[in-house]
From TrEMBL:
One of its GO terms (biological process) is tRNA processing. PANTHER family: TRNA N6-ADENOSINE THREONYLCARBAMOYLTRANSFERASE, TRNA N6-ADENOSINE THREONYLCARBAMOYLTRANSFERASE, MITOCHONDRIAL. This is Gcp-like domain-containing protein. It comes from Zizania palustris. The lineage of its organism: Eukaryota, Viridiplantae, Streptophyta, Embryophyta, Tracheophyta. InterPro entries: Gcp-like_dom.
Length: 120
């Protein structure tokens, strides 16, 4: 499964096997924008996500040695978060799931944080 996260200021993607083993995880930080503008600017964050999302997802797939056709589903953060930023991740997830006829799984950002303890 491919996971995509764009709820705020980081563009992230990971590939996880069915047994929970993380095969890859890639994060593109917007640290430079945060420093330059003194915090998160939703429009700037959206633009940074749009510039990074394709490369981040492809690197996650490459690092896991899989292609989109190997995936069983795509999970994507649907909230809470900045709507402009969330839209970038959802758009990318929809593009992949439509092209490869995969299910899409909407993920609640805070619930995902809580569930991480189960994988440790």
């Amino acid at each position: 499964m491919l996971g995509i996260e764009t709820s705020c200021d980081d563009t992230a993607a990971a590939v996880v096997r069915g047994d929970g083993k993380i095969l890859s995880q890639v994060v593109s930080s917007q640290e430079d924008l945060l420093a330059r503008y003194g915090g998160v600017s939703p429009k700037m964050a959206e633009e940074a996500h749009a510039l990074a999302i394709d490369q981040v997802v492809q690197k996650a797939l490459d690092d896991a040695n899989v292609s989109e056709s190997d995936l069983c589903a795509v999970a994507v953060t649907v909230g809470p978060g900045l709507s402009l930023c969330l839209r970038v991740g959802v758009h990318k997830a929809r593009k992949i799931t439509k092209a490869f006829r995969l299910p899409i799984v909407g993920v609640h950002h805070m619930e995902a944080h809580a569930l991480v303890s189960r994988t440790a």
